[in-house]
Amino acid sequence: MSNKPDNQSGQSLMELLVAMGIFVLIVASTMFLTLDAHLANQEGGQRTRAAAFAQEGIEASKSLASRGWKYLTVGMHGLSAVTNVWQYNGSTDSLGIFSRSVTVTSVNRDVSGNIVTSGGTPDPDTKLVTSRVTWSPRPNRPSEVVVNSYFANWKSRRWSQTLQSDFDAGTKNQVVSTNVSGGELELDAMGGGQLGNQFKINSVTGAQNLSSATLRTSFRFTAQNSKSVSAIRVYLINSTGPTYRYGLQKDSGGNPDGVWLGSATKTSVAGWQSVTLPSAVPITAGTTYHIVVQYASGTIRNNRYISLSVSTPGNELVPLTNSPDLQSNVLNFNGTSWSLPTDQQPIYMLDFNDGTTYEGNPYNRLTENNAERIYSTNYVGEQFTVASDVSATDITFEAKKIGSPTGNLMVALYNVSGLALVEQGVLAPAALVGTTYTAFTYHFSSSRSLIAGTTYRIYLYSSVANSTTRYFRIRRLDVFNNAAYIGQSYNGSTSLLTWSANSGSSWSTASVADIGGYYFTLQSGYQTSGDFISSAFDTGSASTVDNYLTWTSTIPVGTILQYQVRTAATEAGLASSTWVGPDGTGATYFMTAGEIIADNANTRWIQYRAYFTSTGAATPTLSDITVNYE
Amino acid sequence: MNKEFIKRQDGMTLIELSIYIALVAAVLVMATSFAWNIINSRTKAFAVQEVEQNGRYIIEKFSQAVRQANDITAPVVSASGTDLTLVMKSAPVNPTILSLSGTRLMFQQGAGASVALNSTAVDVTSLNFSNISSANGKSKQMRLQFTLETVNPGSRNEWEYKNNFETSVELLDR
């Protein structure tokens, strides 16, 4: 009985505590729920404003793209409208608690044109714009809204050049247009060609004997200079004749036309005969003329006549430059008609009235001296320089043998300026060398560069001693020892006969002589540089914005192709504006397709320039080029 | 034993009563403040929602109107103001005018009635329409900035709420 009230009271306290505990739990969880609901509500509002703020980033990018596609510059940007138009400025901007960044990313596409996240090639006309707004609703609880949008450059226009006719409308400098695959530009190819003195003399002889008053001899030639001839020189053999008339005539169907442009008479003397014309006769480069010689006065008979010295074979080239002169020949008049003798080379010189320049063929002798015998320690060759850098693959010499030498006929290329042997090797085994001049070719182990301004020596020697009765020989061509004649021999005085009697320890040279019948075979290649200036293009509006320059090209190893552009308000103004690269100055070049063209005040007219560079072995090729503008 | 029990029973009952009263008082205080908090936060939530929903609505109406516009009559390029006049492609809604009347942002399409975009519970302040189009007409863009705050004559904390809004829209059809 008495225990009951005790138990009852104790229980009610416990119940109260439990009830309170439960109550506190309920209150606390309800409080949390209410607070969370409140915060979620607030964050929802923030998210709404953040979305509007992020969308503004996309809209601002639309504005930039509308003004000019190029203003969508790749990178992370903030926005600013302080100049009353949207600009990318810095890397973020903010509004209250919100921080915004607009990121422009270039977009790659695969071969099917689909956008890919890896691989593919960049599409300059598509950009991915990501506007990201971040904020922290509560400390250490970052939140963000991201809006992505792909932008397409649908509004801009293009100026493309791709056809050969497009490129032909521009100015090409050491660059050529081709039409192999729809029109391209390339560096001009340089013919492989040959370098050396290919002039040959097998023998020196006389043209027909002018032993009758009706006979005439003509030396036909193509004028190399447009100058006035004051004197004619020919070389006489059989010089016991009377007085002859020497003069210039024009060509008529390959023969002299019979009308003297200028002539004079002279009594005959041996050797070089110089006939001064009464007044200088102007001649035009590239035109064919004849030096005609015929009887004038005095007793002429069987043992009183002259004969003009000529050589065989007819070389049909100009000795000085080795350039072709297909008109070069000797003609004979027999009293009724002109005829060509076979394979003769006229020997003559023309003095111009400036007193210092000449043209013609001064080689009047094939010399076979003891000094040029190739045996034992006796070496013979040519010392020379080249006018521009070339690359040689082979060397060819005409050689013959006297007696029966053994061993090999050797050839060597020596850099005289650098005191270095470039390469040596076997030109021909003695057994293959004949008793008449025959060409032998040595192939260099690798292409040998001959650098302009450097002196070289190409020479022959015997691999075994042999002797004065068993040796090799090359052609030595001689001119009269006078600067006028030396100046018209192969390469003038920069190419000289050279020989050594002590295995190359010391060398002698002779400016009056050259080796005849030798040449380097040059590697075929391309010009090492060139450029192309396009035709001018009218975009049709003074407020044109030039977006970017893109192109399709092939760039082999060792070549460079780069570009610059210039713009102006008028077509005439282009000439005085500066060629600029992507930074807007002349110091840079466009080297990556799709590079942005810098802003410029005057943009109505535009023009581009392509710079081609090569080591000479290959050429860069420009297939098409496009200026994107709006 | 019994005597001790009776004594203890009496003492315990008094202490229990005291404790009971104290606990009940504490619980009542907690419950009351809790209920008050709930009421306040509900009021605040209402204020927040009112501001955010009005802001969202204004931004949507603005964006929709500007996107469909051909041109902007006022403000002129590089200028800003509290009135926006849009040239619309569709005749019935041309012109579309957004203007500030007191603290109401009014929206009028063509010859239609001018209606307020914000409710009477919130005020529009610091309204600014900026014409940030490019001078050469290649880009036409409007920027809208405004502040919304709850109408709160008694300056009561639970009713106090305001926020800044901003967006820009490029004209699509021109």
Strand content of chain B is: 25-35%
Q: What is the number of beta strands of chain B?
A: 9
- Cα end-to-end separation of chain A: 106 Å
Please state the average pLDDT score of chain B: 87
- Unreliable stretches of chain B: none
Strand content of chain A: over 45%
**Distance, first to last CA of chain B:** 104 Å
Low confidence ranges of chain A: 1-6
Number of beta strands of chain A: 47
Secondary structure category of chain B: alpha+beta
Question: What radius of gyration of chain A results from the CA coordinates?
Answer: 44 Å
Rounded mean pLDDT of chain A is: 90
* Count of distinct structural domains of chain B: 1
Cross-sheet strand order for the largest sheet of chain B: 1-3-4-5-6
Query: What is the approximate shape of chain A?
Result: elongated
Order of SSEs of chain B, N→C?
Answer: HEEEEEEEEE
Radius of gyration of chain B: 30 Å
Largest sheet: number of strands, sense, barrel closure of chain B:
5 strands, antiparallel
Which structural category fits the helices and strands of chain A? mainly beta
